[in-house]
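Subgroup meeting minutes
Present: P.N., E.W., G.H.
Scribe: E.W.

1. P.N. recapped why we're keeping a running log of single-chain structure predictions: easier to compare across weeks, and new members can see raw inputs and outputs side by side.
2. G.H. added today's entry (419 aa).
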Amino acid sequence: MSITAPKGTKDILPEEIFRWHKAQQTFADVCHMFGYEEIRIPTFEDTNLFQRGVGDTTDVVQKEMYTFEDKGGRSITLRPEGTAGVVRSYIEHGMGNLSGPVRLFYDITAFRYEKQQKGRYREFHQLGLEAFGATGPEIDAEIISVLDVFFKKMGLKSIKLCINSIGCPTCRKAYNEMLKDYFRPHVDTMCEDCRNRFEKNPLRMIDCKIDGEKDVVKNAPRLIDHLCDDCKDHFEALKSRLDNLGIAYSIDPNIVRGLDYYTRTVFEFVSENVGTQGTICGGGRYDGLVESVGGPSTPGIGFAMGVERFLLEAEAQGIPFEKPDYTKIYLAGMSDNAKDVVAKLCYDLRLNGVGCEQDLMGRAFRAQMKYAGKKNVPYLVVIGDDEIASGVVNVKKMEDGSQTEVKISELVEYCKTNL
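Output recorded in log:
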C-alpha cells in the first residue's frame, strides 16, 4: 500500500523552502519595525472559542472546522484562523493591562476542511497581526501600511487595496432589517446557506459563494450608504490618512469579509496581475470580538495572509528569490588520516559560523570532486598526507579556479574572514 500526504496537504521541499523563509523573515522584520511583537498560540483550542469568536453563521464554523472529542471528552478544534486564538491569549494573560496599543503578529498553520484548489489547502499557513486598544482610524491606516511596506520590500506589484466600512452594531441593526425587507421576496430562490442566514445574519448573504454573482445580490442596498454618523466619520478619516501616506485605494462596497466578528473598516489587497486575479490578503476591525469571548470591551483590528497564496502571486509576477549559499566550502580528504583532519576542521568551521561539507559516503577523490561541482560549492580545499605534512592547503575558488595558500592552523580564521 502506497502512503501519500493527506488530501489538501502539501510537503514543502528543500528546493522551495527558501522562498518561504524569505517571505516569513521579511514579514517578521517589517512587523518589528512597526513595533509588533511575535506571539505563538496553540494549534488547537476549545471549540467554543471559534463558535463564539468566528461566528456560528460562517462557512468556517458550519462546514470547514476540524473538530473532535479528545480523551477527556472535551470538544477540541484545530484552529481555522489566528485571530480568535490571539484574542483568547490576550484575555487570558491580562494583556489589557499593558500600555496600548498591544501589537502582536504571528506565523501559523491553520486548518479548514474545504475543496482543494490551486493555492488553497486544508492545512495552510498564515502570516497575520492583531492590534488591541486603539479606537481611531490611525491604527487602521497603520496596519494597512504594514502590508504596503511588506509588499514593496518583497517586490510585489500589480496589486490594489480595496476598502469598505461595514458599520457598527448600531447602524448594522437597521441595515439588516433593510436587507431582510429587500431579500424577503427572493429568499426562496436563493441557496440553502442564504436561507439560513436570512434571519441570523443577512449581511453574509452578500458574501455568498453561490448566489454572490446574481443580480438580486449585486443590486442589494449597500451598507456604506447607510452608516451612522460615527462610522461615516471613521471611514472618512481612514481615507484621509491613507491619502496622507500616499497609499492608493479603491472603495468596494461588496467587501464584507467571511467572518462574523468584523466591524467598521474591512479591506483586501487584490491582485491585478493577468491570470492571478484574486484576494491576496484581507482584514479589518473587530471592536466587539474581545468582549464576545469573555474579555473587557476592547477595540481591535488585524489581518491575515495565506503564505501559499502570496507565494503563488509572487511566482506569477516573476519576483526573484535568491537561494542562500549556506555551504561555503567543501573539504575533500584523500586518506584516512586526512579525513580525521577534515572532520575536525569542519567542526571548527561550523562553530565559527562557516557552512561547510565533507564526504560522509566513502566516495573516492574523483567522486568527491564531482559531488562538490553538483552542489555548486563556492570554495574547495583538498587535504591529503602531503598537505598534513606541510601544514599548508590551497583554498580554490571554484568560479575562476584561483587558489590561495593558507596554513591549516589558520584555515578556520581565513574562511571566517574571507568567505
